[in-house]
Specification:
about 170 residues
Length: about 170
């Protein structure tokens, strides 16, 4: 059964809202990183030994850095802000997916580029492989709704051009 333009637009919106909510949530959670790590440290026993070591290392680094050099966390604030701004970019496809399909394509390219960043910068910054894989999961999770929304957008474009020509 074929979908109508209205049905396709609703499907696209659902997937994009899911993506945007994930980006905003990811951004917002980057602001209180020391507090979040303190909560993890208070519940450290729920993690595997390898993760316990990693969280302890990160918490110590963040706490020490914030105490001695608080301005370095400004970079994390910008990271958080960037996630929120990227989410806002998807308002265009929410309004007119066919006209703004390039935003969906840009998003998919960004998701794919997470992999070389994680696997090149990760070892340089001494990020353990398991955490590089966690970072890569954001690319996998992000590309799924974008791909589905893009596929529906192509269907919408075809359907609208067919309806226009008849």
């Amino acid at each position: 059964m074929k979908s109508s333009p209205t049905q396709l637009k609703k499907k696209i919106k659902r997937w994009l809202i899911f993506l945007m909510a994930g980006l905003v949530l990811s951004g917002i959670t980057a602001f209180p990183i020391e507090s979040e790590l303190a909560i993890a440290m208070n519940n450290i026993e729920i993690f595997s030994p390898k993760m316990q070591h990693w969280l302890t290392t990160i918490y110590t680094a963040v706490k020490t850095t914030n105490a001695e050099y608080p301005y370095l966390s400004y970079g994390t604030d910008w990271l958080a802000f960037a996630h929120i701004i990227i989410a806002i970019a998807f308002i265009g496809p929410l309004r007119d997916p066919v006209r703004n399909i390039w935003v969906l394509q840009f998003g998919m390219i960004a998701c794919v580029l997470i992999f070389p960043l994680a696997f090149i910068a990760g070892p340089i910054r001494h990020i353990p492989l398991f955490w590089q894989l966690v970072d890569c999961s954001f690319g996998v999770i992000g590309v799924i709704p974008l791909y589905i929304a893009c596929r529906y957008t192509y269907q919408l474009e075809l359907l609208e051009s067919t309806l226009k020509n008849h």
